[in-house]
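As described in the Methods, two query proteins were run sequentially through the folding procedure within a single session, without resetting any intermediate state between them. The first query and its resulting structure tokens are shown here.
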Amino acid sequence: MCDCVYVMLLFVLFVGAFGAEEDSLLCEMLGNPEFPLLSKEGDITIGGAFSIHSQISTPPLSFTDAPGPLICSRINLREFRFAQTMIFAIEEINNSSSLLPNISIGYKIFDSCGSTLPSTRAVMGLMNGQERTLGKNCSSQSSVHAIIGASESSSTIVMLQISGIFQIPVISHFATCACLSNIKEYPSFFRTIPSDYYQSRALAKLVKHFGWTWVGAVRSDNDYGNNGMATFITTASQEGVCIEYSEAISRTDPSEQVAKVVKVIQSGSARVLVAFLAQGEMNILLEEALKHNLTGLQWVGSESWITASHLAIKRYSAILTGSLGFTIRKTKISGLREFLLQVNPSQDPHNDLLREFWEDTFGCSFHSSLHGQTQCSGSESLQDIDNPFTDVSELRISNNVYKAVYAVAHAAHSMLKCGQSGEAVNQWCIWKNDLEPKQVVTHLQAVNFTLQSGERVYFDENGDPAATYELVNWQRNQAGDTVFVTVGSYDASLPNGKQFNMNGINTMWAAGSLKRPQSVCSERCLPGFRQAVIKGKPICCFSCIACAAGEISNSSNPAECLRCPLEYWSNEDHSQCVQKVIEFLSYGETMGALLTAFSLFGAGLTLLVSCVFFWFRHTPLVKASNSELSFLLLFSLTLCFLCSLTFIGRPSEWSCMLRHTAFGITFALCMSCILAKTIAVVMAFKAKRPSNTVPQCSAPLQRTSVLSCTSLQVLVCVLWLTLAPPYPYKNTAYATERIILECDLGSPLGFWAVLGYIGLLALLCFILAFLARKLPDNFNEAKFITFSMLIFCAVWVTFIPAYVSSPGKFTVAVEIFAILASSYGLLFCIFAPKCYILLLKPERNTKKHMMGRNQ
């Protein structure tokens, strides 16, 4: 507490002293200035921040001493190539007569060490310069007009939070975090590499394309990894891909923490690992993976490491061979390799970075006293060296640095109004001493040019370039070395479904296998089954349940079975819908054939009886039974037998209308004939003598009664057919697996009116015949009519419940059976006794016997 008070008092005294003497003091830098690793003076100065070293050691901190300087070690040759590419582009522009003529570009390159703290010091060094005093005020401009870098998203964000206040443009070649596309928060930020928003979506589509629905994920615990993985997980869930685990690591994590992540990966069942890692985290993960023998996984990598040649070594081949990932398109930069091979400590003998690079490359030392190491002469040749610095076969990120430098140059070219003077061929620029960085921002937003390679460079409203990627596959060549083979592409500007394409080149998979690995939580459901989510597990973990009857699944892993259309049904294995069996009473089946046979036999038998009656038409028996009505009755019975045939066969509009009306009219005619015969019998036996007042039932009266009774039924049928006729109907309600083709009644009232009228006639016949059953006569026809009506009514009374409850085609069969049974009953009961006498007992066929009385 006392120390805090002491510090506050000192601060107040310092401010007071400064205020009292501010007219006499100069603006001085607090602390020590930061010096660039590589620099050159120029009219326009471009700053650079690269992760030239990959390891950082922080000094111990205390409250008594000032912190020591940060120490960066382990040179990153790939990042050093990026820095040299920036210098190459600047020198190329300086030697150009068409771009920024008579204007020189200088540079200041700092080391961000792949960490936020050195990045902060680097951006402060870029802005402040190395001058300790600036005069009486601190309103001087930044020492650089634009900054290229850094190589990590987190480092770039730290730089932007400082440089953005002064509107200094920052163009990153490798910071891919989607968060940097926020133009409101980072208005002075540009980049020549696409946003991770597109890369993450492309990775999700890649995983889905190969059918991997169960994957693991590991990411860098920073802005780059967290934002990129969040977008990937969101898109993957939309594509139906589940994440088994999602782990995060940082390059500063202890080895125990990284080992825990490796154990999680090993214990997981997913065979595909999506690694959204920066190179620093990828390095420590691979080292720990080697210790735990983590092999057999299919790696899907982010752009940060997927083309890192220092990882494509035999040491990691068992782990990374077959890896897949998206990266920007590679290109060739003419003259770059020759420029890189000329890098030598002799260019700046006092430059520690060049000396360190030389020592690391050739394994020598400029200090001969170091443990007997070979002493560097400086005359060693890079021509025979094959390392990430000299390897220009995969110029992807280096090309981004190259494009960034040219973007700044074109913005300055436009800002300085460089053009041709009249007709002279020499270009000129209007130089401004007060060249402000915010002006560069404005002109960077409008740059649109094409490089010598034919690549077009421009920025959208968020400062991003066009999102196009190549799909790279790690394959082994005949020499056993790992090479990056382009096997596909992704273009975010194309519509969905056309963005991702494979180019047909064979892909090598994990562990060098030519067979694509499978990575699913549950095996795909076969056709005929559907997925059922297992409670407490992701949707990718499911059990397979057979589809219900009438439902199918003809694709793999359907969430729901599809119900077949109304006239279709599922086949035996529920894989496709097939036409339902159409069921109706046909002539071809046994039941239809039997009913047809009985119908034709009945009609034939009736015709035979007619022939017998016609043969014996002059005999007393036939005359006594009213031959005219008998022949009419036999005719109607023949029609009754034949009308049952209209009920058999495929229903049509005409057959549906015919079957019920023919049935109603023929039976009405039949009942009318029997009623007339019954009335004639009763009236004949009720007559005591010819002069009896009871009217005789003459033939015209009989014909009139038959015609009247039948005409009434015809009228009912005509009304039925006119108002609501029967029609063919596909009944799918009774049986789900088949279609019952039947005749809908149209109007049930019409059907029951027809049937009821026949029943009424039958009831009248039965009553009259019952009353005349005991009339004294050897040939009393009334008792046979009584018995026939009894059978007729019994058949049709039992028909009603059977008709209503019969299923499908049996409904039609019951109706046909009722027609045939009642027709046979009438035929046998009325005509069998007469045929018996006519054929077998001719002695009874006499007038005397007919006129005789029963005792």
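Immediately afterward, the second query was submitted; its sequence and tokens are:
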Amino acid sequence: MILLKILKFFLKIFFALFICGLIIGIAGYAYYSKDLPDVATLKDVKLQTPMQVLSKDGELIAIFGERRRTPLQYNQIPPQVVNAVIATEDARFNEHFGIDPIGIMRAMYIGVTQHGFSQGGSTITQQVAKNFFLTPEKSIARKVKEMILAIRMEKELSKEEIMTLYLNMINFGSRAYGVGAASYTFFGKTPDQLTVDEAALLAGLPNAPSAFNPIAHPERALTRRNWVLGRMLDQSYITQAEYDEAIKKPLNVSYHEPQIEFSAPYVAEMARQFMYDKFGENAYTDGYKVYTTISKTDQVAANEAVQKHIVDYDIRHGYRGPEKELWQKNETPWNAEQIQAILNKYPCHVGMCPAVVTESNDTQASAVLTDKSNITINFQGMKWARRFISDTRQGASPKKVTDVLKAGQLIWVKKNNDIWELAQIPAVNAALVSLDSDNGAIKAIVGGYDFNLSKFNRATQALRQLGSNIKPFIYTSALEQGLTMATLLNDAPIVRTTGSVTWRPKNSPPTYAGPLRMRIGLGMSKNVMMVRALRAVGLNYAATYLERFGFPKENISYNESLALGSASFTPLQVARAYSVIVNGGYLIKPYLIERIEYDDRNDVIYQHQPLIACHDCDNDDIAIGTMPVSLDNVENESNESGNEEPEQANLNPEDNLILPDINGENSTNVTPKYAPHTVNSGIAFIMKDGLRSIVFGGSDWNGTAWRVKALGRKDVGGKTGTTNASKDVWFSGFGGNIVTTVWMGFDDHRRELGRTYRAEAGAVTANPVWVDYMKVALQDVPVVQDKQPANVVSVTIDQRTGLLPQSGSKTMSEYFIKGTEPTTYATQEVGTSVTDSQGGTTELF
């Protein structure tokens, strides 16, 4: 009886405790679950995925975002990875309902008996719930919420969906989130290529990604991997033979950067800045794919052309000496540790790397690199290094190695065909921009020698004086006013005195030939003829006319020096302006971003709708005064090259010509739209033909762009440009439908490009960059045969006078706008001979 009473007593106590526990449980569940999020949202969850910038062909240019992640579908994850994770993190994953009481008890028991918790009590489902919905705080309240969410998740989601979320979400270390990113980061593989030992290594990382990092802590990682393999064996996920084979393998890991297909840092930065302006920090986490208009072939050719000719210029002008003198001849040499410390401060740039000279003699020098390797530089690798005195003067060629290099010098070196050569970081800079003249698509853009040296994008932000590159546009305004390519303009000196100021524009070279046809004046870049053309049409008319080419009004100078290129524009603005001449008079809008895709389903949220040139339109109505004139919309970057801050363009964020407005209603509408017609097609046709003359010249004269003939095409043309004292040199031209502009100069506007054995000018300094790039860019572009507009006629003229020819005249064909062709005949003038003091005679006309 007593025993029965005791049993009843304990049953009552147990029942009371059960009821209390049940009440507390229900109350706790109601309390902690009332503000919990809906787990169904995990079906459409957005993982933090970096932004990718790609070429038009889908080749990766850059990745922006702290977390590297490649989201995968469940069927893209191999079973051995899933099994390794289950064996490591949650052995009863396929049996439990979100929480695992057995697992919790086992973890507590092991923790007490072994004085360390090698197994966690949280299930994979709980870890997903914590990472997506809860804070990392350690508290009973958070743990209860985690369990409630886990139970709900198991009801709402399948085991496969939960595992997919986990393996895409979890941190594996080294900025790799998700198994897709982790497999590439550590092994350079996709998950389906992983071996058993590699899958086991990855499965062991999420528990402590820093402590078990196989690159930083290989011994710990190896121990952890082997433990995971043991768990997989215990749970029959692998056989004994597989275990024996896998456990013998070394880690074989290394850090793999994202696989960038080619370098286009200025393009990537333009895209990054735009996306950040539109989406803020979400730009780096929401998985946007930004497809640009550039191709790998064109961009690589542009990079190489710019970098090569910058280095060529720098070498021509001599060696400026070592980066630093670390110790002198009579001083104690630095030890290896000191040398490495200084080398680590200097990264490589465009194949040039820092080195410290340790010894030198007449025939060679020894140097050490950042990786502690020793190299030898022979005299052949430094014979170019004449001492730099000024931009126009260099010292004598060196005779031996010690004339150039001495022990203790920090220098720059590069490897050329397995031979080490002396190098130096160039001081000069350049930019190139290439457009499709029919629709404005940017084919390639280079903003400087090295983005890592200076993030300032000279192609879109640097305002530089144009020099003779402006002449085609002013001559076009002259054609508009009735002048023709056969009009005679006097190639003779000009002197204008205003008060105490005298202006004497000169030709370069300063030679004069008297009256010449306007085509020759353009082809030979005669400055005084250009001034006379400007005076013929009027300064205000010509200056206003420049707006038809998209030049910003605020950057146009209203004085006669405008004829010589005193106005300042960016290379992109110049390329756009030349496109108007090339495409028949249409003001296209340059654009960089072709489309933007969102999330892993590749939903297109923006497809660019270009304004195109209408080659088949017969309507010659001209749209004037409605076209935008400001071009740049990229935020100004500071110039980090150490030079004076370059002059920057006035940027108008409302005039979005380079990058798209993705907030518009028609952001995915691809219906063709025509660009405004700003220059008469006939006039554009004649000026385009005039630009060809600058390449091919005439029967008795050579154009300044004769180097372009190396392309072997007839549909090419272009114009050189050189400012006073060669502070800026340009070449802008076309081939097929491609327009490309090249600029070179110093970021410091006060410094001249100077001369060596020749004057640095547009024809000899910028034109070779253009030719090297266009050799590649035009490879698959068909030769264009321009259709002659209906308002253009071809007339045979007298070469000397531009009038209709007489019998015996030297003749040529010339294009005219109907109504402006000559109607009078050239006269055969008889010259008068005058005897000079030496007895010679001169013909006067």
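The chain is about 30% helix and 20% strand. We note this only descriptively and draw no conclusion about the first query from it.
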